[in-house]
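Record 1 of the preview.
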Amino acid sequence: MPRTTRRQFLATLPATRSLASQAAARNSAAVLWYAKPADKWTDALPVGNGRLGAMVFGGAGKERLQLNEDTLWSGHPKDWNNPEARKHLPEVRRLVMEEGKYVEAGEVSQKMQGPYNQSYQPLGNLWLEFERTGAITGYRRELDLDTAIARTTYTAGNVAFTREVFVSAPDQVAVVRVAVNKPGALRFGISLDCPLRSSSNADSDRTLRLSGKAPAHVDPNYKRSDDPVLYSDEEGKGMRFEVHVRAYTDGGSIRADGNRLRIEGAHAATILIAAGTGFRGYDKRPDKSAAEITATCRAQLDAAAKKPYGRLRDAHLAAHQKLFRRVSLELPSSGGNAPTDERLAAFKDKPDPSLAALYFQYGRYLLITSSRPGTQPANLQGIWNEDVRPPWSANWTANINVQMNYWPAETCNLAECHEPLFELTQGIARNGAATARVNYGLEGWCSHHNVDLWRHTGPVGEGSGSPTWANWAMSGPWFCQHLWEHWLFSGDKEFLRARAYPLMKGAAEFLLGWLIEDKQGRLTTCPSVSTENTFVAPGGRAAHVTAGCTMDIALIHELFTNCIDASKLLGVDAAFRERMAKSLERLVPYKTGSRGQLLEWDKEFAEKEPGHRHMSHMYPLYPGWEFTPRRSAEFWKACRTSLELRLKAGGAYTGWSRAWAICFWSRLEDGDMAWESIRKLFELSTGPNLFDTHPAGKGWIFQIDGNFGATAGIAEMLVQSHDGAIHFLPALPSAWPDGSVRGLRVRGNAAVDLAWAAGKAKDAIVRPRASREFVLRAPQGQRIAEAAGRPFNSSEAVVRLQAGKICRIRFA
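->
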């Protein structure tokens, strides 16, 4: 790495005014900051480039960076399909459809299960241990969402320390920069360790290398097991991995000291971190050779080391800000510039809308840093995990959680970040074709509720998992919704033709075979479960399995409708289109219950847990778009009743479930209730670093889906476009009387800027990327006065816009 001159070095140091006063002047809408280091992992601050991730603790005397790499998983590809499942399927259907023996049907369903999937693994820890030179004062750690840099500043005695950490997408390395304002005052050690089987050593006077092998198998953390983590010396069972750390100094010296590096008398130091694994693809056994992994890491370090720190930083900023700066949100502030954890603690007594704006941008930041083209998708914890047995394996849980991760991708102008989910879906479709054939004797492809690096598609549970999650076979259509949404937002017909439609068609082929006739000759599904929820069967026993749950019917209706539209647009598959159209006509109908609620199961069973966290029967409200007040008012109102009943009974008690409630209220066009759910999310399900939380015993665990779901919900409060019109401020809370948003995307390939004051929309701009007709809808109680230079005086206006030519809108 090129050395800096003393003048260049001094130019990088803080100005003479205090670090605290500099920090106070920064934009609080895009900065999380704290007056003390992180005490535990869930207090640390996340940085990442989609593939590499780090949790930064910000310690003064001892810093920890906990590291991850998105392909480091336990296990290897294997056959998880169960040929016996096909034999048990008719019995399950008979017990449900003919005898009404729901409990017994669930017991037989367990015989259709297969092995559990594998677990996402931690890469290791980088430790920096500093010599103390006096009392610590002026401490601050922060995460700047606009720069994607975690920064720690403090003074020890008379020496001011500045530390920056980021993970570069262009250079594929993590970078740590440590500087002091007193030349020669920097002294610290660098070491690596890892909770997996591994060893570390100094390769040279400036390089550390950690090498290890992941477990061949890890049981899920919720499974009781005497030997849950299994290692193997056999090739291809458990992948190799390496972490390489290289340090450079401005002034002073650097030397190897056992398995550590030691820096003495420097002005500043730059530390580069590269990592690699033996992953060769979801359908191939690991391993790349150790020599190959080593060569890759060294090549990454060699390339990065040719650039001075400033160039590395600038390239990182450009890549991140190209995505992050597309959207801005300004909301009223009442929280001042207090540390973020203090703002959160004060929120219950003094709700601060600007904290919601920060949370919204944090969700966008987390998606950028955990999901980029060429990486794995964001999992249950994004890319950040310190546990060998992480919660729910930190997998892709496909009965809402991985899908929720991507709800903000299109609306929040991060379509590129959606790409890893499409790649995952392609792998699932390939493996899921074997699952459909072996387990059910059907064409097409299917997948169930747990997915891992190896694109596991079979039902998990090993014969003892609850069928309400293990046997749910409907994640394929939900994955396909994301493909269709990308088409609607982008208008990319080649994407529809080459990628989306073939996958959608394969999922629809499975569903055409999965549907069976009921006694009235209608088409339904069996076995069917309402994800993770339980009903009370006749006789008073808890049961899971029935026929035609509302979510099944909604997913089938949505996929068939989208496939029909796609086949017409592409001019293909007329006969297949007709099959789907005829099946749609015969689908069992949605039903409402005695309280006016939308029914969750095919009958009005009593709920075992009326306040359950899953609310899958309301899928047609959100993320679906079948139920709207303008085309299905009866069921739209029934969804409100269902939501009110669920929340009254204590529902939405997890962060992701509360985020779903925000989205529901947004689609119900009730901004005050959406704000109420945001308040509950902050009060009950948000950690000090704004990570989404899930209750676990006496504490909580991190689960990232709530961050993404709430971000999507806030966007839905401001702009919606799912029912044929761009609807401005459909769910504006009274607590947000003034504000503005820029850059939200709408279906039809356009972006929207919008400003409001005193609770009323003032003006808006639509920026179309395609020439087409748009319907514009004013907020409730307002009219569109002018659009595209034409006068209007109506709640809706139809305008034809040209690509690249902005449309200005004025409201009255």
